[in-house]
């Protein structure tokens, strides 16, 4: 039997969740919810009920996607998990670590799946990188893009960089020894551009830059390891591998079957429920990525940037 599913928050990303659930044979989309009644048109096009209060979905669904502003994740997810509803939350899971820990505890008690939308885990390019990455020594990562006024409750570390913190921790599998971070607010009260350099206990180093002030979107990771240099473009879903063979450097450029990462993510969520593998096993890696992201944000806030001194235009020559 297909799982009965709902979507809470059908803005830019939530409406894609709704569209994908409507396409999958192992899911039955039974309703969507958004505080804005203007989004009813999306439900009408999908020929499903529309709600403005997410609580109206309780008792009607087995699983839910939550794609609302991050500041609302905890309150909404808590209601669904307590009701025994399997829950997929867009990243970051919450804004506070204690809230994430509480959701994890509830999901265990209720034997529910709790998955967080770290999209790059399901990118075909990254899946290939996981297979060939070995003893990584250095990462260079850029996640850049234009400003989006929709994101107004957190900075670029929780908005964008958290994807790469999740990926790096997954690949290195070593504890963080130290890190240095800097970030600058430009268009919001939060950091809109940030850089962090991380050193791990196994001596691997990662240099991450995230910006939401860049005109062109860029999602790239470069990996240096003992036997190869690997370059992955998440957007293009393509990668290159450079290897040393004797005294020469060889290059492999491999084109792979392109897939929709969000669809892969949702299918993983549904299959983890159907197979039972995800039940009562919440996304601990997402919690750990949040914990590290919050440490970075705290470090950025402690840095006092020099005051900009403007010339005195009233002074006589």
Number of domains: 2
Rg, alpha carbons: 21 Å
Instruction: Flag low-confidence runs.
Output: 313-317
Examine the coordinates and then state which fold CATH places here, giving the name of the CATH topology of the largest domain.
Rossmann fold
Describe the global form.
globular
Average the pLDDT over all residues and give the rounded result: 92
Q: Please provide the count of β strands.
A: 14
Please give the CATH architecture of the largest domain: 3-Layer(aba) Sandwich
Oligomer: single chain
Secondary-structure class = alpha/beta
| Helix-strand sequence | EHEHEEHEHEHEHEEEEEEEHH
By DSSP (H or I, 4+ residues per run), the number of helices equals 8
Strand order of the largest sheet: 8-9-10-7-11-12-13-14
Described by strand count, sense and barrel closure, the largest sheet is: 8 strands, mixed
The N- and C-terminal alpha carbons lie at a distance of 83 Å
Question: Which class of the largest domain in CATH terms?
Answer: Alpha Beta
What is the helical fraction, as a range of percent? 25-40%
CATH superfamily of the largest domain: NAD(P)-binding Rossmann-like Domain
What percent of residues are in strands? Answer: 25-35%
